[in-house]
Amino acid sequence: MPWPSKIATLFELATVDGERDESEWYGPYNALLNYLFPVEEDYVIVLQYKRPEQLKSVDFTTIFVVRRAKYPVFFLEIKATGHIHKPSQRAAADLQIQDQFFNLFDEVQIPIFYGLSALGPRVSVYTFTKSTNEPETDSRMWRQQTGGIST
């Protein structure tokens, strides 16, 4: 399903400053999520801010949670594009998204719950299967994907 050109343009505009500033990606991803999960179908996009475990850090994590009938059906965590170049930052993003699965686990009412970790326009898809209680991913997608999200 091709995206509307306005959404593609938002991603293009975020590319320049999104290398260092993850908030440049919030608007494009918010527009995309609202397009894919319309309010007319009872979806709502909720922003959650996760405080760092250690209070010395000011690196809050912003997570977009898609809910339907108050239950989570999908979530997205966004980091700046520059995180792709540092293995330690990719590993930290991986741990954060796995932690988010466990934070939402008790609320999930669907058999397979999806999460997306975005490093700018590059993404890695995660699934959490209720029957196994384990998150799964192929985070190599961050390294292999060169063009980012395709429209």
Concise description?
With 151 residues, the protein is an alpha+beta fold. The chain contains four helices and six strands; from the N terminus they run ααβββαβββα.
What does this structure look like?
With 151 residues, the chain is of the alpha+beta class. The protein is built from four helices and six strands, in the order H-H-E-E-E-H-E-E-E-H. The chain has helices spanning 5-14, 26-36, 87-104, 140-144, and strands at residues 43-50, 61-68, 71-79, 112-119, 122-129, 134-137. Strands 1-2-3-4-5-6 form a six-stranded mixed β-sheet, sandwiched between helices. Strand 2 (61-68) and strand 3 (71-79) form a beta hairpin. The longest helix is centred in the middle third of the chain and has 18 residues, at 87-104. The radius of gyration is 15 Å and the shape is globular. It starts with a helix and ends in a 7-residue tail after the last helix. Mean pLDDT is 79; it is low at 140-151.
